[in-house]
Amino acid sequence: MLEKTAIRGVLEKVKAEGRQALTAPEGKLLCDAYGIAVPQEGVAGSADEAASLASGMGFPVVMKIVSPDILHKTEAGGVIVGVKSAEEAKAAYDKIVANAKAYKADAEIAGVQVQQMLAGGQEVIIGAVTDGSFGKLVAFGLGGVLVEVLKDITFRLAPVTRDDALSMLDGIQAAEMLKGVRGGDPVNRDALADMIVRVSNLVNDYPEIVELDLNPVFATKDGAIAADVRIVVDYDQPAPRPRPSQEEIVTAMNRIMRPKAVAVIGASAEDGKIGNSVMKNLINGGYKGEIYPIHPKADEILGYKAYRSVRDVPGEIDTAIFAIPAKLVAGALTECGEKKIPGAVLIPSGFAEAGAPELQEEIVKIGQKYNIRLMGPNIYGFYYTPSNLCATFCTAYDVKGSAALSSQSGGIGMAIIGFSRSAKMGVSAIVGLGNKSDIDEDDLLAFFEQDDNTRIIAQHCEDLKDGRAFAEAAKRVSKKKPIVVLKAGRTSAGAKAASSHTGALAGNDKIYDDVFKQSGVIRARSLRQLLEFARGVPILPTPKGENVLIITGAGGSGVLLSDSCVDNDLKLMSMPDDLDAAFRKFIPPFGAAGNPVDITGGEPPQTYKNTVRLGLEDDRIHSLILGYWHTIVTPPMVFAKLMVEVKEEMAAKGIEKPMVASLAGDVEVEEAAEYLYQNGIPAYAYSTELPVEVLGAKYKWARGAGLL
């Protein structure tokens, strides 16, 4: 193996020459050093030398221009394949050099690469790219000339494990092609996974390698060999963002989110002022800690003694809530630093979002100087219901529960508050992050991970400042608690102009999608989905296996529910003969057993009860989807109360399985759905999609956490 010093020598030479890419022979040196299989090759400086090299390695060969000034060789007419004789090799040499000069007259030409020609096997691409938020990522997908047309590619954070690499082979749409189609041989999965790991190690060891392509890689039953290597470098890498330790994050976040004393900077006795709303919410919300209003002139506000500055407050302060204009924040924040206050909740707008990045940079520097963690600016504040803390100008909120929600946007935050209130969804916290000058999603993950009052974390974000820190935190936290993320802006192109195929394919949203999967995050595709997952996932028991059964009173619902199962990666159980016979005892002859079990619409309540009880009792069934159809024989509330009765009867025997319900009918089904929900069965009127999506989210989490 080539010594690391030799690789460093190659990279330093490229830097000294002011180049942004390695030549193919230089790329081969790096591949050889990391055990990445590439064909036999050599560089010819003349037509005769090309003929000699080609004859030595055996025909056919591929010949390619070697020039630091020509990155896309095919475009320049710098590649000729299938060269079959010494005479053809001489002619190809002359033609390639002539084409290169015609393409770029002043191009420096180092020679022509003569390479053993590979044939057969599946063409794939293995590559790497550097993302502004996530850092180094490796990629795998279908390769060859159609790579940018098909865009069938998947990403993982580097460095990858062997398991990560194997999951990438199954993560593309054309995964079946790798298993061999129409009598073809399957590819050697171990060889491909090994190459992915080696590429991952290479780019991880050398930060200046920003893009790498092995395209095509010929994958056969015997192994994998990269026909072409392209490596792009950038020696001007930004310094990594400073991150406190896990212990420091948790210590600070505990004082901010669960403060014993709060200061309100800009507190006001005047209705309609933000400082007035914050004070009223703290008082009316029932917060039991100390409240210190800060005002330059007032002696008392809403019955609380006021102070000119936080420095004048006699006791310790954990959190300062800012309700003053942006231009005054820096001065007051400095006083917080002198008072050793660990957290600042910055409600004011008028910073980076309003074209004043310098004001934001100033407060970030003050925060770093005094070790103050900053939430915001440009936020609605936050709620932490176990402490009755409403540190916000929005209305006080008092429905306590186990869901912790956050949003980057104030408008989305208001929607979260409204839905939570309307749906009676208990929350442990609702947090605004705004401009994320400091505190961001991974800080919240660290807090909620150790917060016994939180069972699910749901986050809306438009970007991740440090995607790698988020992914590392999410991978750890998602093993204990479900994390749901609504990533806004998923339709934007997101990819900068790139020099490699992998770079061009690194559309921002595809990276988010794959990293979320790698980290065990459940991705919500809409605001409503985020909210429904936050509400429904925590009340469902964790399934013990993959077998899902549908019991429905309407054939049409059964078909739509089955479609939703496919859309949400749920496995409809194949019905064993004995179980099929058991269900048939309860349903009319014109009903349908199998899966879905269609009991038909005219059946009395007892039929629902018998079939659902059987579904819960049989160990081979792991979760139930109920499709109810409104009839005179079984009215909505009769159905709802019966289902809760069966559920509780089984729970008393120690049997608990996830159950969701879809209710089709007139407006009475709304009350029935709400009753079911309040009793632990997520239920939806007029929707066959939402209940299955909620069940699917529970399954995604359970799989990612290794519980199935």
TrEMBL record:
<dbReference type="GO" id="GO:0046872">
    <property type="term" value="F:metal ion binding"/>
</dbReference>
<feature type="domain" description="ATP-grasp">
    <location>
        <begin position="28"/>
        <end position="64"/>
    </location>
</feature>
<dbReference type="InterPro" id="IPR013815">
    <property type="entry name" value="ATP_grasp_subdomain_1"/>
</dbReference>
<keyword id="KW-0067">ATP-binding</keyword>
<keyword id="KW-0547">Nucleotide-binding</keyword>
<dbReference type="Pfam" id="PF13380">
    <property type="entry name" value="CoA_binding_2"/>
</dbReference>
<dbReference type="Pfam" id="PF19045">
    <property type="entry name" value="Ligase_CoA_2"/>
</dbReference>
<dbReference type="InterPro" id="IPR036291">
    <property type="entry name" value="NAD(P)-bd_dom_sf"/>
</dbReference>
<dbReference type="GO" id="GO:0006099">
    <property type="term" value="P:tricarboxylic acid cycle"/>
</dbReference>
<dbReference type="InterPro" id="IPR011761">
    <property type="entry name" value="ATP-grasp"/>
</dbReference>
<keyword id="KW-0816">Tricarboxylic acid cycle</keyword>
<dbReference type="InterPro" id="IPR016102">
    <property type="entry name" value="Succinyl-CoA_synth-like"/>
</dbReference>
<dbReference type="InterPro" id="IPR032875">
    <property type="entry name" value="Succ_CoA_lig_flav_dom"/>
</dbReference>
<dbReference type="GO" id="GO:0005524">
    <property type="term" value="F:ATP binding"/>
</dbReference>
<comment type="similarity">
    <text>In the N-terminal section; belongs to the acetate CoA ligase alpha subunit family.</text>
</comment>
<dbReference type="Pfam" id="PF13607">
    <property type="entry name" value="Succ_CoA_lig"/>
</dbReference>
<dbReference type="InterPro" id="IPR003781">
    <property type="entry name" value="CoA-bd"/>
</dbReference>
<dbReference type="GO" id="GO:0043758">
    <property type="term" value="F:acetate-CoA ligase (ADP-forming) activity"/>
</dbReference>
<dbReference type="Pfam" id="PF13549">
    <property type="entry name" value="ATP-grasp_5"/>
</dbReference>
<dbReference type="InterPro" id="IPR043938">
    <property type="entry name" value="Ligase_CoA_dom"/>
</dbReference>
<protein>
    <submittedName>
        <fullName>Acetyl coenzyme A synthetase (ADP forming)-like protein</fullName>
    </submittedName>
</protein>
